[in-house]
Amino acid sequence: MSADKVDPAILRVEGDRGVPVVIELHAVAAGEAGLAGLAEQVHDAQAGVFEHLNRLGVTGARGLTLTNAVVVTLSRDQILEMAARSDVRKILLDEPRQVT
To answer: Which run of H or E residues covers position 75?
Structure first.
């Protein structure tokens, strides 16, 4: 189920305001091409997500190369729609996190 990909903290956000999220896609192997090759493969992997966001009228999305993720602000309905994509691994609330 696509809702299983969504961070429960997102579902607890109240109101209709946009929610800042990180859309994590499945990992991409750099291979022998190094960082330049990784950047190209990640760009290709993220292309479908960016096209989908454009169709939804969403602006301001940024791609993250090393984590193969997209940072964007979405409505709850848009989050669930993006979670239904097979290339999306999970969607997290974009908030500071303590790493131990």
So the answer is: none
- Please classify residue 69 by burial: count the beta carbons closer than 10 Å to its beta carbon, then call 0-12 exposed, 13-18 middle and 19+ buried: buried
The fraction of the chain above a pLDDT of 70, given in percent, is: 95
Contact 69, 30 (CB under 8 A): no
**For residues 49 and 29, what is the distance between their CA atoms, to the nearest angstrom?**
18
* pLDDT for position 66: 86
Predicted model pTM: 0.87
Q: Which domains does the chain have, with CATH numbers?
A: 2-93 (3.30.70)
C-beta neighbour count of 42 within 10 angstroms: 21
Q: What do you get for the CA distance between the two ends of the chain, in Å?
A: 30
Residue 95, H or E segment: none
Q: Is 22 helix (H, G, I), strand (E, B) or coil?
A: strand
